[in-house]
Amino acid sequence: MKIGITCYPTYGGSGVVATELGKALALRGHEVHFITYAMPMRLDTYHDNIYYHEVDIPNYPVFEFQLYTLALAGKMVDVVRYEELDILHVHYAIPHAISGYMAKQIFQSEFKTRLVTTLHGTDITLIGLEPSFQPLVKFSIEQSDAVTSVSRFLREKTTSQFGIDKDIDVIPNFVDTNIYHRNGGCSLREQVAPKGEKVLVHVSNFRPVKRVDDTIYILREVLAHLPAKLVLVGDGPERATAERLCRELNLCDHVKFLGKQSALPQILSCADLMLLPSQSESFGLAALEAMSCGVPVVATSSGGIPEVVVHGESGYVAEIGDVRRMGRYAVDLLLNEKKLQKFRANARRRAVEKFDVNLIIPRYEELYERVLASSVDA
Ligand code: GMT
Hints:
Elements: E1 2-6, H1 13-27, E2 31-36, E3 50-54, H2 68-83, E4 87-91, H3 96-107, E5 114-119, H4 122-125, H5 134-143, E6 146-149, H6 152-162, E7 169-170, H7 187-192, E8 198-203, H8 212-223, E9 228-233, H9 239-248, E10 255-259, H10 264-268, E11 273-276, H11 285-292, E12 297-300, H12 305-308, E13 315-318, H13 323-334, H14 337-355, H15 357-377
The protein binds ligand GMT.
């Protein structure tokens, strides 16, 4: 198949999932065309069968704001026409599903290319609910030929909050368990925790919804019982606040800010526990990547996290903001080596048996085949 993929090319779960999907599809012999405003972050080496089309955003003095949604739609039309795509798969509804809809209005008289939309999270639970976006999101979901969501939670939110009764296929996020696995020697651990301290890790885009400060409060709870270090990976609007909090709580020696990093399997391999105290999380890809590296997760029970982390088996979940409970869960695991090892093995097994890339990609292929077949019948 010839598949166009549009996503956010920056750090963030939806872009990561879309890029890894494209890479996996290309490996399986499909021709994949990325249509984005910048090279997707995880597409930094050459891959057979992958092509990249950059969206140019025209600037003109009359335009006070950049017209990305329109420029993207125009580029989509161009790529559908000249590459003769079978599928145009957009990730994150705003504005990608809207651009996809506009493009389809233009190309549908000539091409049978089908539009697939994958909903990722805040496009439904947060920004998609803004009154100015809500009708556009609802309409573009209804007009897509197929819609997927990354968790059952997100499907339920989409139908209840937008009053949509369209079929939505739940296709969970995935991880390449051959790449995300615990590897031996770990220089980060030697550097951060030279005295054998336990290592907690958090990976995110440091947006308010991630409640990064809570990881520092959890660390404080843990430090009352055992020596530990916290490694914070990523960057974003809440980083400065988190740095300030470390200073206020006098915890700077215990917290390492690594900033944005791409060598996640190596970093995760050095960790004993992942913290994900999010306010809202439709899936929690960071938790899955940690689990694949044999790292149990202490998280909130928000959104789709319990579909990934099994409470009492591969980690623990608690109420949003309950840092004391999350701290207690962390201590319980970190002080009990036998239990920690068991949770580690459970976390890895769950990633391999439920969320491995080779289990999930065929589900997207089946969905593409289904929408293509329905277009032939129509
Ligand atoms: O808003 C974000 O956190 C970023 C967003 C994204 O698009 O990058 O993440 C969402 O999509 C990820 C991939 O499907 C999910 O793993 C995250 O749980 C989800 N974030 C939220 O729901 C907050």
